Amino acid sequence: MAPSFNDGDSLFNFVVKEGNGVKGLVDMGLTEVPGRYIQPPHHRINNQQVAGSLENVSIDLSELDGPNHDQVVRSIVHASETLGFFQVVNHGVPLELLESLKVAAHKFFGQPAVKKAVYLKGVSPSPLVKYGTSFVPENEKALEWKDYISMMYTNDVDAREFWPNDLKEVALEYIKTSSEMVQKLLQTLIGNLGVTLDDSRFNELTGLTLVNMNFYPPCPNPDLTVGVGRHSDAGMLTVLLQDGIGGLYVKKGDQSAADSTGDNEVWIEIPPAHGALVINIGDSLQILSNGRYISAEHRVRTTDIESRVSVPIFNTPLPEAKIGPFAEVVARDGVARYKEVIYEEYTKSYLEKSLDGKKSLVFASII
Ligand SMILES: O=C(O)CCC(=O)C(=O)O
């Protein structure tokens, strides 16, 4: 029997407060999404806006250490300056681990709600772990069709003590095996700007790691909903494992030129590629590079066929880090396009709003 929620509060309580999530709704045999999940037209993913998919070429990171070094650097820089997204292979993360991560995510979200609800905000045994649904449900008119668990990395001991049992070893291994790639990519991108950072400043800019697992259950009305709304990531660089279902779209072209209807936007799909990881630039690196690298707006569609999982690692500055355009780049550009902000304040402003494209960057913009 399809559930009926008499008012918005009962739906909100069921999904958000009691921790049943979207998965709980779907398990009840829902045949139509509740009104609270219906996106305004300009936030829906319209097939006419989709202009194809990223060329199915992944950058081979093993070549960074070989004779093709310069060419690989050019590919990384070009992708970061144009789309802000690219895919990599031979990244150092074992392929079996990628499979185990997807299996672990399905297993975690497949559990009864009571097992997941112990990690809800306010009751979770540690602020390092948070289970939830949508982005900031309290602030959103339309909710995202997504449940997630977020695990902040401080050290192995905390991770082993607080992260969910079935996730901790795979998630730790994912962070460990991807960290060399992350360091190399960031060093390459920062070095390409003519900037040299000492270890302490590099750590300040890149020292916080968060691993999320996203779960998108099948949705009866994919045309009306989104899995993740249009947004850019706040940090430096995101590493994303997606499964084979597809549905991740990136906005192409002038990121600030969107009109309010979204009619003139062009989105391209980042196609699932077996064994590859998706890399994208975050707002902090866009600010530090004075706008040279693009923190691309992206979003995820829903599907009525199967559940989708994705596992991003967000590599971000430390909360107290100062984020402003590098002096060397400003000297060359002759103008600073952003002001200096404290990363913690930036994220506070980011989290206060519902996801809405690149509006998060306004906080650091020079008016
Ligand atoms: O699921 C995806 O492919 C992307 C997820 C995402 O954009 C996010 O978690 O911020």
TrEMBL record:
GO biological process: coumarin biosynthetic process; response to molecule of fungal origin
GO molecular function: 2-oxoglutarate-dependent dioxygenase activity; metal ion binding
Enzyme class label: oxidoreductase
Gene3D superfamilies: B-lactam Antibiotic, Isopenicillin N Synthase, Chain (2.60.120.330)
SUPFAM superfamilies reported in the protein's UniProt record: Clavaminate synthase-like
Domain named Fe2OG dioxygenase: residues: 201-317
Pathway connected to this protein: Phenylpropanoid metabolism
PROSITE patterns reported for this sequence: FE2OG_OXY (PS51471)
Domain of life of the organism encoding this protein: Eukaryota
Catalytic activity: (E)-feruloyl-CoA + 2-oxoglutarate + O2 = (E)-6-hydroxyferuloyl-CoA + succinate + CO2
Pfam families: 2OG-FeII_Oxy, DIOX_N
InterPro entries: DIOX_N, IPNS-like_FE2OG_OXY, IPNS-like_sf, Oxoglu/Fe-dep_dioxygenase_dom
EC number(s) given by UniProt: 1.14.11.61
Key words, A-Z: Dioxygenase, Iron, Metal-binding, Oxidoreductase
Cofactor(s) for this UniProt protein: L-ascorbate
Family per similarity comment: Belongs to the iron/ascorbate-dependent oxidoreductase family.
Protein name: feruloyl-CoA 6-hydroxylase
